[in-house]
Amino acid sequence: MDTDMDQIYQTDVGNLLAFNPNHRFPSTPSSREELVKECVTEGTKLVQAIADTLFNFPSTESVDGPLVQLPPPTTKLPREKHLPRPKPPTKWEEFALKKEAKKDKIVSDETTDKFKRRHGYDRVNDDNDIPVIEAKASDEPGEDPFAKRLDDKKKRVGKQEKNRLQNLKTAAKAGALPSHVQLAATALPISGTKTQPQKIGKDALGDVAGLAATSTASGGKFDKKLPGEKPPKKQGKHHKYLPVVPRYGWVDEEKEQTNKVLGKLLSKHSHEILNVGKAINMYNDKKEKKKSGRSDKLKPKKDITKKKPYANKAN
Amino acid sequence: MRPLDENETTVVFEKIFKFVGNNLKNIVENPSHEGPEPEPGRYCFRLQKSRVYYVSESLVKRATNISRKSLVSLGTCIGKYTHAGSFHLTIMSLNLLAANAKHKVWLKPTSEMSFLYGNHVLKGGLGRITDSIVPGDGVVVFSMSDVPLGFGIAAKSTQDCRKLDPNGIVVLHQADIGEYLRDEDEL
Q: Which subcellular locations apply to this protein (chain A) (predicted)?
């Protein structure tokens, strides 16, 4: 319609969308029909705006008419699913945020003055390497300092394990765990949580069991199964081929298979055995022969007009 | 070498059925007198390196003594599987098909050579043709002296053949015995 109105309309040709942000009803419409009329007139203006922009695009010829390549859409559509929920930071991560310590993998050892790795084989401060522990004033007599070190270590390990479980629980509460870890977390004793843990479906449970089974050397084939647990589904293609030569004394499976296939095929095409056209022709021929009463064209024809010698009874 | 599984058997039988119809039963249950056993054995189909062979059972038993890598061929090769998984009948199945064919076509001596070079059968080269042919049927091509020359797919029914102009295609060429010379390497 008016070219200056085009600038006022917001058009997104990629989505074939036109929007008039400045539309105001001049007066409140008195009836439904008036409202409808008003909407239709406004709508036609918007559609005209879209059509104008479309026809301004370069078009290629096609079978059905001119073809126009639409530009990519500019309207941003809202997201379908929620953003991934962030995992709550673990206790260590919180601590690390406060204390920005950088831990090297290779540390200098005090006793041997060499560079050893922090964890693993031949590590720094290994418990087995300490030859002598000096007695301190706070030590009680009769206490084994080596045993004490071992005890301390065990306590630290236990504490760490508890922390790990706590981290899992908080993450499970926040809903930020993948399904197989979620399963491990829900098996923990959770006390005092009001939120019901998400129930994992049968398929997910089966998948998790399969995942766990792959960590065994035999792929979970000989694992003890709970009562009611089904054996794992076969994964991947499974071909069971028949033996090349039928085993002596056993049923010939290949023969059975070929017979079965043959039977199926023949029964599928059994409707073609009877050639209907030919049968009809033969039937019609037979009928005509019967009608005319002549079984063989080669037999001499009876001449009805020929008079017999005794026909004249007048004598 | 292994027997065909069910899907493969259906595919092969369907292809052969197009040519022989119900005589397929005769092919499958053909008694073979090849082995030293007194009672006749059967013929069976075996797959080796994506080629399907029609062998008697006694021969198969003896072929198991040859390792898979050294086994080149056994019995009669009737066709092969392509890379994509479809099955094609090759010329070497001609004897089997010709003996049990349902639809036959005889060629005039003038057009024999054309067919043997791989061209389709035109109406002008047609000598005799069996009736009740449906387009899409398998047809075995013979010379006038009843020598099987090859096989193909019927393009027109017998009735339509009569109305065709002399350059119309009657049988689409699939295989001919000239291939023994032309495609020697591929067989």
A: Nucleus
Q: Do A245 and B1 touch (CB under 8 A)?
A: no
Strands annotated E in chain B? 2-3, 43-48, 51-56, 76-81, 87-89, 104-107, 121-122, 126-129, 138-143, 148-154, 169-176
A264 chain-B contacts, CB cut-off 8 A: 10
Give the pLDDT band (50/70/90) at residue A3: very low
In chain B, CATH 2.30.130.10 sits at 103-181
Instruction: Name the residue in chain B with its Cα closest to that of A272.
Output: B21
Backbone angles phi and psi of B172, in degrees to 5: -85, 130
Q: Which one has a higher pLDDT value, B122 or A142? A: B122
CATH code matching the domain that covers B103-181, chosen among 3.40.605.10, 2.30.130.10, 1.10.10.10, 2.70.70.10: 2.30.130.10
Per-residue pLDDT tens digits for A180-224: 666 665 566 555 455 555 677 777 777 777 788 888 888 777 888
Indicate the DSSP class of residue B141.
E
Q: Which residues of B touch A242 (CB under 8 A)?
A: 2-3, 5
A264–B10 CB contact, under 8 Å: yes
> ipTM score here?
0.81
For residue range B108-123, what is the model confidence (pLDDT) as tens digits?
A: 999 999 999 999 999 9
Chain region(s) in chain B for CATH 3.10.450.220: 2-96
CB contact under 8 A, A277 and B46: no
Q: Where do the H-state alpha helices sit in chain A?
A: 3-8, 32-56, 91-98, 145-174, 179-186, 202-214, 253-268, 276-292
- Eight-class DSSP state of A16: T
Q: Which residue of B has its CA nearest to A247?
A: B61
Q: Is B7 on the interface with A (CB under 8 A)?
A: no
Higher per-residue confidence, B32 vs A294: B32
Q: Does B9 touch chain A (CB under 8 A)?
A: yes
- Quick check: B46 contacting A, CB < 8 Å? yes
CATH for B2-96 is: 3.10.450.220
Res. B142: pLDDT tops 90: yes
- What three-state secondary structure class fits B111? helix
